[in-house]
Specification:
two-stranded antiparallel sheet; globular; about 550 residues; single chain; alpha/beta
């Protein structure tokens, strides 16, 4: 899995896509360098005249989805994005593109509603919004036309891209994480939810009507291009709310003769469940023989991004559908959680699909149900890891004037006392020393009758960890009706840390022989750390 700037574990195609996107970013944070003609220069001030808001957010999204930790790139982008706003929070521009990417321009000198909706959507999706942003959002609603569309500029004509950005903005606002923040004092949650859904659906209807409208034969090629780019934006929303319309649109895209081959394939993969058998077989055969990135010869950002998506998701259409569900039919495909957890998600989704083949799950064991509690427990463990390693919590894990590490039971007690405050407000059943029939497991967390996560602590120095401890955990899981567990290994020295590689290898072997169980190891370094003041003295010497 990728993190922290290293891409060794990624396939070459994804590495090449990442490199292309990195090179496409300007030093001030905007994307679009590959669009420049030879010897053309674009400055920070020029970017504020014709900002590439869609392109930049799309590029950043692609980087995140396909496995790149784009913290540096994202920080630059955020600074640039904030520079585009006026004092009321609207995004400005003296010019705007006719399409969200490419080279076709049309000029204006007003507040850009299109960019405002796209920029706000990003900020809300990333939980970076302020009270002032909520006010800007409510003011935006005033500019929706009677037919559901939005103009690009105030009092302008209906605009396809502004309307599509609004659909995604509303899907973000309608998510459970956001909606409560957008309720005016005189309205209820139910009434504002109904109003927002109505506004979104009117916008979506207008876009679908435009797609289905008659087009002269000379404009067919341009319209096909636009429909394809539009479905990159709203495909998941159409699939989630208008299945019949989605089937018709995707069938139309299947028969399109367009240059954007990989964009076409990715849009089709979004709607894989509603494709007919012929279309599905075609899609699978095309993905199986994806060429190397060097064979594309494209400078179109969406085409490059689509190629990256296809290399990332591959045949795992189930994961793509799952990500889209997590994001409330939003165009962004990555999980809402901040930490990438692909290995668990892949296992969870695969298991769900395998079970669905042999019995009717009736929606009760959807991966989303399992992942919520898994990620919650993961965050608890990482909170504790941070306390021990970075907030001097390690001092509580030594005794006899820091000569001897504490026993395993004392570590468990310290963990429990450190996380209890985070559990009190959660609707989660949790317990210690839960009896499994094969002995007690250290900690158990549950958010439903059939969804449990076990947490087992072990000292790195323990002889058991070098023997058959993984099998012991699996025995706990089997008898405790649990299929997912964390093994937290606590070490007090460099020698202790060296055992982790062997533990992970044991887990990998175990998962191959028993794929119905999932175990993840987390190492916590409780070694004695030199204080900052002492460290400074050493450095000065």
């Amino acid at each position: 899995m990728y993190c922290g700037g290293f891409i060794d574990e990624l396939g070459k195609n994804r590495k090449d896509v990442i490199k292309w996107l990195q090179e496409d970013q300007f030093p001030y944070g905007e994307w679009g360098k590959h669009e420049l003609v030879q010897n053309e220069v674009r400055t920070f001030e020029e970017s504020k005249i014709k900002p590439n808001v869609f392109s930049s957010i799309y590029a950043l999204n692609v980087l995140k989805v396909i496995g790149y930790d784009a913290k540096q790139e994202e920080n630059l982008f955020r600074e640039w994005l904030n520079s585009l706003r006026d004092e009321k929070g609207f995004f400005l521009g003296k010019a705007a593109k006719q399409a969200p990417y490419g080279h076709r321009y049309s000029y204006d000198t007003f507040i850009n509603l299109r960019h405002t909706m796209k920029g706000l959507d990003y900020l809300l999706h990333e939980k970076l919004y302020s009270f002032e942003d909520i006010e800007t959002f409510h003011e935006l609603l005033e500019y929706q036309n009677e037919d559901g569309s939005f103009p690009q500029i105030i009092k302008g004509n209906s605009d396809i891209w502004a309307t599509s950005y609004f659909v995604n903005l509303m899907n973000t606002v309608l998510s459970k994480e956001c909606l409560k923040q957008f309720i005016p004092r005189n309205k209820t949650l139910e009434s504002i939810q109904t109003e927002f859904m109505r506004r979104r659906d009117r916008a979506l209807t207008w876009l679908i009507d435009w797609i289905n409208s008659d087009t002269s034969s000379e404009n067919k090629e341009e319209k096909d291009h636009t429909i394809l780019a539009l479905m990159v934006q709203i495909g998941t929303a159409v699939l989630g709310t208008r299945k019949k319309d989605a089937e018709q649109i995707l069938h139309r895209i299947f028969n399109m003769n367009v240059n954007e081959k990989y964009t076409k394939l990715f849009v089709l993969s979004m709607g894989f469940p509603v494709l007919n058998a012929i279309e599905q077989r075609y899609l699978i055969s095309e993905i199986e023989i994806l060429p190397s990135f060097q064979e594309i010869h494209q400078i179109d950002l969406v085409e490059v991004g689509s190629f990256g998506y296809l290399n990332y998701f591959g045949m795992d259409m189930g994961r793509l559908q799952y990500y889209n569900e997590l994001n409330n039919m939003h165009e962004m495909e990555w999980p809402l959680q901040n930490v990438r957890r692909d290995q668990y998600l892949n296992w969870c989704i695969k298991k769900y699909h395998e079970l669905s083949k042999v019995k009717n799950l009736d929606g009760k064991q959807h991966p989303a149900d399992k992942s919520d509690i898994w990620f919650f427990v993961y965050d608890l463990i990482m909170r504790y890891k941070k306390i021990v390693e970075n907030e001097r919590g390690w001092e509580n894990l030594w005794e006899n004037n820091k000569k001897d590490p504490v026993k395993e039971k004392q570590i468990q007690n310290h963990f429990w006392s450190s996380i209890t405050m985070y559990l009190e407000s959660q609707k989660i059943k949790y317990d210690r020393e839960t009896e499994t029939g094969r002995g007690p497991v250290d900690f158990s967390f549950e958010n439903g009758v059939s969804t449990k996560v076990f947490v087992e602590f072990k000292l790195a120095s323990s002889s058991a960890i070098r023997k058959n401890f993984i099998e012991q955990i699996k025995s706990y899981m089997k008898n405790g009706a649990c299929d997912s567990s964390y093994l937290v290994v606590v070490g007090f020295s460099k020698e202790d840390a060296s055992v982790i590689e062997g533990v992970n290898e044991s887990i990998e072997r175990s998962l191959k022989s028993n794929p119905e169980f999932f175990i993840q190891c987390v190492y916590i370094d409780a070694s004695i750390k030199m204080s900052a003041s002492k460290l400074q003295v050493v450095n000065d010497i």
